[in-house]
Amino acid sequence: MFAHKTALLSALSTALLASASLQAAEPLKAVGAGEGQLDIVAWPGYIERGESDKAYDWVTGFEKETGCKVSVKTAATSDEMVSLMAKGGYDLVTASGDASLRLIVGKRVQPINTSLIPNWKNIDPRLQDGAWYVVNKQVYGTPYQWGPNVLMYNTKVFPQAPTSWNVVFEPQNLPDGKPNKGRVQAYDGPIYIADAALYLKSTKPELGIQNPYELNETQYKAVLDLLRQQQPLIHRYWHDATVQMSDVKNEGVAASSSWGYMVNGLKADNQPVASTIPKEGATGWADTTMLHAEAKHPNCAYKWMDWSLQPKVQGDVAAWFGSLPAVPAACTGSELLGAEGCKTNGFDQFDKIAFWKTPQAEGGKFVPYSRWTQDYIAIMGGR
């Protein structure tokens, strides 16, 4: 894993340097006939055509209506998404906030013309000017889904929901009387440093952490110390949703950061799991469908961005992934999501979520993402 991560970091750095010479294309003036093909980089479970469950299919109807054949490449981390977009050959990417700004700065994505997307009017006002995709008043994509990074737990180990993230950060016996060592997981991505920072924001207020993505050297050192303390407790650093679900089912994992997608999947498999947002709050993600600077199929891409903002599509995605729709009308517009789905998934928790964004140095005030990447790779490797 260490070698894989190092190679990924090297490729990412090279790609970002090479990208400086790229110029983003001018936004389309009108949407024409589709090119017959659409290539998307997406999170697992984001673009479904009924193969996992025939009830969950928002691709087949699009293909029939537009003639655009959809091809999906899944990516497990934001770093992988940035790397794939740097290589090129894709039209769209469902980028989280810790990737979107890198893609914009690296000129890997282009501004869009929102007037060509009739369903733009449906978007949740809370998302319409998100700093993770609107830069200098230019809009780089359409909101897709959002949600918290929840604390998933085994209900046999925890008869009551844990109230603090300390169950994954601090050595301790869990309610079943057994130690947490080897029974908890953490996310295999440098952005997880923000989860530790958010925990210390509450538990060590003397550090003065205001924003988990803006850490000075003293704050950053304390966060790394916590993550080094956590490392011996970790069963696995997860990035693959399927692997995490298997670990919970078969390997005795009792608690971990996770997504609603895995929680829902395990519940559907009759596993004793539930999720919660502890008292310290949670990090989270707001994902944006972004258009590659050199997209080969821009007309199909615009058609997809508009299609994806229909209330039924948004609601169906939220039901499948365990996320929240970018379109409030989806909360009542999807039978699969149901009347209580938005409430259950945390629609009213928006203000409690510290949304992922790429850490910036801001003139040396804060530790930049490049350091986060190097240090987290070292910590996962036991250094």
Question: How would you describe this protein?
Answer:
The protein has 383 residues and is of the alpha/beta class. It folds into two domains: 2-146 and 286-350, Periplasmic binding protein-like II (D-Maltodextrin-Binding Protein, domain 2), CATH 3.40.190; 148-283 and 360-380, Periplasmic binding protein-like II (D-Maltodextrin-Binding Protein, domain 2, 3-Layer(aba) Sandwich), CATH 3.40.190.10. 35% of the residues lie in helices and 17% in strands. The protein has 14 helices and 15 strands. The protein has helices at 2-19, 60-66, 78-87, 97-105, 166-169, 193-203, 217-230, 241-250, 260-268, 298-307, 311-321, 330-333, 341-345, 369-380, and strands spanning 37-42, 69-74, 92-95, 109-110, 134-135, 138-139, 142-148, 150-154, 184-187, 234-238, 255-258, 273-276, 282-292, 324-325, 353-355. Strands 1, 2, 3, 4, 7, 13, 14 and 15 form an eight-stranded mixed beta sheet that branches. α2 links the parallel β1 (37-42) and β2 (69-74). The longest helix has 18 residues, at 2-19. The protein is globular and about 60 Å long. The chain starts with a helix and ends with a helix.
